[in-house]
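Entry for the shared binder. Reason: the reviewer on the internal report wants the predicted structure included alongside the sequence.
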Amino acid sequence: MYKVQKMIGLSVVAGLLLSGCGQAGDPEIIMPDTPMQPSAAVSGGVTAEPVAAEEETAAAEEQGASPSAGGGEAHTVYLITMDLADSYWQSIDKGCKQAAAELGNITYKWIGPDTHDDALQSACVDQAVSEGADAILIAANSAEGVNGSLQKAADAGCKIIYVDSAASFDCVTALATDNEAAGKTAAESMKTALADRGITSGTIGVMGVTQDTASCVARETGFRAAFEGTDFVLADTVYMMDDAANIKSAVTAGQSQGYVAYFGTNEGTSVAAGEAVKESGRDDLVVGFDTSDAMLALIADGTAYATMQQNPERMGHDGMVIAVQALEGTYTDTNTKTDTGVTVITADSM
């Protein structure tokens, strides 16, 4: 078997439809506490200059497959996401392709449904198994909805690796953002910016998606925890509920009450808050999440101070590496959480 040559330590914290137009925005990250357990230390990953894979054939491209160069026994690895359209999933795919090229002799294929639906995603898992997948990287649509198909995949000998969003079925590892830690990072960025403006107290507006969007709730939890013991007051969360007007109205109300800053827990809330501030002509501080073109434009023109960039490309890259290591027996841990971190994006860092 082909063996991974170069290793780095990873920081650990915690098909029937081949085309589609998925829901835009920030995918919900589901990280159930059971059966997932944190691991104290895991070795994995590779570091190498990217090696170009052999040119894909037209037939392979039509099927979405990416055979890679290399010797030894081949491995077939599938990526299954919630849809195929969102740029976030495309970044995970990019990371998978890079790792497949580095490792060599990997047949890689990305599939997914055209909408967020458990039954359609389960069909994709079944397709991967029927086509001989040795490992499946999956961003699970829900905690329980695809478990039946994942059980069939495991029975067939497939290794299961979660990227971004985990189901409650046993896995090798789940690679995702530690959202509570990311929320704390966002808070520290805001604290720094407020201090630079000479602001040491005041009320901060907090914008959520829905009360049960797990990823955003975790970000808010971390954000609020970081402000404990300060002279700042965090207002009750205002939820967007699929209507950006809710956030814009909340920002307008906050401005009338003298709020000093606003925090958006995902791309939609962050952009809505930033646009409301921009329309008002004021210089209120906005810190948010994710890096859509709209959000980056708000950072670039100075409307928003910072946004937290998740690392989906790393999820795909390291997920592919760990999948191969699991297949070759060099990665033997199970049910670990691998935190892929966030990067703080400001105008100075763009």
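Summary line for the report: The first strand starts at residue 8 and ends at 10.
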